[in-house]
Amino acid sequence: MRVRDWQDVLADVTETNAEPDGWRAVAGDRSNGIGEDLYLGHPAVGVYHLKTYAKNPYEVRGKGTRVARRLDDDLDSFFPEKTGGRFAVREPAPDEDTAKSRAKRLEEVVKTHADAPTTPDALFDDAMDVLESPAFGPMAYEFDGRPDALDGLAEQFEESEELLTEELEDLVERDDVNKGFQ
After folding, report:
1. Does 180 map to a domain?
2. Which of 51, 105, 118, 153 is the most exposed place for a label (fewest CB within 10 A)?
3. Are residues 10 and 63 in the same domain?
């Protein structure tokens, strides 16, 4: 298991050729200490586990790793179906012309959804398509708690849970943050 910076792990997610809307996520507070746990899963790609914390209001730090090469039936039950909250991983537009084109198309999508009967999920999916998000989908998330699925995934991946916890705690200690922003 290779532990890396959380942004490098997300770069792996964005570089997969997997269907962008096939991703699902579970996130919430860490079971011990500051920060959050995040699991991202896709049937064709596998499962990634990230542990992050806010060093200050402008900087997120963390570690992550790939914990499974595929999202099998045993793991699938921990990830939400097409209900609940939504998440997306996005990349910036490579240049100004692309950014302007995406903004124009996004404006058209919003107008179309404003004029027609639609659902929030349909608007979200269309917006992610226009923005060319490489990964998006349903998410189970508790802002001030921990979904039961996080504990289930932690039990499934005890080794990564322990290793990433140690790595994140070392990072927090090196950053000398403890329980407050630096």
Report:
1. no
2. 118
3. yes
